[in-house]
Give the backbone structure.
Amino acid sequence: MMEATNKENTLLLTITDKNDLYAAYMPFVINGGLFITTNLPYEMGQEVSISLTLMDELEPLAISGKVIWTTPPRSESYRPSGIGIQFNKNDNITARDKIETYLVGTFTSDRSTFTM
């Protein structure tokens, strides 16, 4: 399950399923990134803060980044509406490493994701 809400300019994101994490993670983005399903309007380049809770972790990860991808509501593709966030360079290494640890062995999969 993947759920995102916006609170005080911070996206609160909870991902409790490895398949959802696989679909949302963007390993092809420099520094890593996540696609977050949302109908809220965001602009390309907009800075965002994310509080990410993964699986059964007790403490959320604080992530900062910028919008590098948008899929608008009712787009012609079958993909969900939302935004792709590129993690900022230095302060999100822990988040990227933790996500990639959960996804070990899945990067060679040919399953589709929210972005590819």
In short: The beta strands are 2-7, 10-15, 33-37, 47-54, 61-71, 82-87.
